[in-house]
Amino acid sequence: MSDAMMPSQQLWTGDYYNEGTGRSDIFDTLKEECGVFGVFGHPEAASLSYYGLHALQHRGEESAGICVTDGEQFNYHRGMGLVKEVFDRDKLSSLPGNRSIGHVRYSTSGDSRLTNAQPLIFKYRDGDLAVATNGNIVNAPQIRRELEQAGSIFQTTSDTEVIAHLIARSSKEFVEAAKDALRQLVGGFAFLLMTNNKLIVASDPHGLRPLTMGRLGDAYLFSSETCAFEVVGAEIIRDILPGELLVLDENGMREDRYAEPQRKALCAMEYIYFSRPDSELNGANLHRARKQMGQVLAQESFVDADVVTGVPDSSISAAIGYAEQTGIPYELGLIKNKYTGRTFIQPSQELREQGVKMKLSAVRGVVEGKRVVMIDDSIVRGTTSRRIVNLLREAGATEVHVRITSPPFKNPCFYGIDTPDRAELIASSKSVEEIRQEINADSLQFLTPDGLIRAVGGFNQGDFKGGLCMACFDNDYPTQTDFDGEEKFGCTC
């Protein structure tokens, strides 16, 4: 067992681009959530988890961890940084076993430090317990206070630890204790719980956070996104259903549930932004879904222009769809610098306004003298949109028309996405015309809620709102969000 300890376990100082920068990031984008990957019944469980987590790296870049068991004891390793930085050949060889759970983390409300890196590992009466999750438990602070008053001592600031204490305090056997614990949680979450002889997989009753099952030979695999299955050569079986609980042990896999499914409400931002374009959600390829968003956006808000370009990387598919629908050529008008991540030292305040140039460059030969349609996935505070519009203007674009493949982002997320306070969301207080002026665009249009449902929800015919959670756009939250008179938001896994 080992943890890659940092000196004195101090919090990250924010010297690097994605190390504890939180809401002060110069790039005004929504933050990735977390990613989980599980293996049951494969002799190379640790290596499979490594490759799976590498495919999920975009969901969290601050820490990574893998816990493996051979049925008798746990071996685990966790560290701060990217998957390839935390693990090497020697580390993986020290993790024998045929069952594992792994995690990549982006911290938001929780502290960015090693003690919060997952999987979280615990000793309890029946042996070892490892927990990995993606999402947010909205009522965790309330449960935590009650547990502390009853004598529980928490080792982390992660809300994920709550479920371990609930299980440990139960007098029931592990599976029933896990069910009881899950029933007490409110929020959006995908859980992997592992003991020495069992793996439990569970999704929240609304299916807010994605979780999928795959198969590799006789082994079962579980992942936040299907792109991880492609990497390891596994076949996709199906999504984990809302309120479902799977139990895997020496007797095989048993399908069960801990709660009745509520209205299906998969996070719309998974389609719009978070998931990789080669992943599938509800049987729909993300690239295809985003192309349809661009096509619907073109139908709703056509503008005469010379070229269409997308903000890399999440908006490229939508830009292609917009171009195909309108007949306006798609061009690579913006280039992303792939190497800004962990080696990008935050600039001085004077350079912060120009910092976007370290990540994006406009292609003068493509946009100079042209009327440009710039496709992006969302506008959060508006600062980055303004910088990109100005980049295109500085490169010689005569007009810049901004089209967004989501409705206006007006409300914070309570289910695992790091969003600013409501007051900091530009769409919560400004009209579309005011936002247009703020970002210096010639025109601005957003995809309508109905357009989004038509483009994405078409894959889920018959489900309310196309089976999507659109609370960040329409303020209609699937669960209670106000506990003890205070709203909780952000990913605290």
TrEMBL record:
InterPro entries: GATase_2_dom, Ntn_hydrolases_N, PRTase-like, PRTase_dom, PurF, PurF_N. GO terms for molecular function: 4 iron, 4 sulfur cluster binding; amidophosphoribosyltransferase activity; magnesium ion binding. Gene3D superfamilies: 3.40.50.2020, Glutamine Phosphoribosylpyrophosphate, subunit 1, domain 1. [4Fe-4S] cluster binds at C267, C413, C469, C472. Its EC number is 2.4.2.14. Residues 34-251 form the Glutamine amidotransferase type-2 domain. Binds 1 Mg(2+) ion per subunit. It comes from the Bacteria. SUPFAM superfamilies: N-terminal nucleophile aminohydrolases (Ntn hydrolases), PRTase-like. GO terms for biological process: 'de novo' IMP biosynthetic process; purine nucleobase biosynthetic process. It is an enzyme of class 2 (transferase). It catalyses: 5-phospho-beta-D-ribosylamine + L-glutamate + diphosphate = 5-phospho-alpha-D-ribose 1-diphosphate + L-glutamine + H2O. Mg(2+) binds at S314, D376, D377. Transmembrane segments: none annotated. Pathway: Purine metabolism; IMP biosynthesis via de novo pathway; N(1)-(5-phospho-D-ribosyl)glycinamide from 5-phospho-alpha-D-ribose 1-diphosphate: step 1/2. Keywords: 4Fe-4S, Glutamine amidotransferase, Glycosyltransferase, Iron, Iron-sulfur, Magnesium, Metal-binding, Purine biosynthesis, Transferase. The active site is at C34 (nucleophile). Its cofactor is Mg(2+); [4Fe-4S] cluster. The keyword Transferase applies. In the C-terminal section; belongs to the purine/pyrimidine phosphoribosyltransferase family. HAMAP family: PurF. Catalyzes the formation of phosphoribosylamine from phosphoribosylpyrophosphate (PRPP) and glutamine. This is Amidophosphoribosyltransferase.
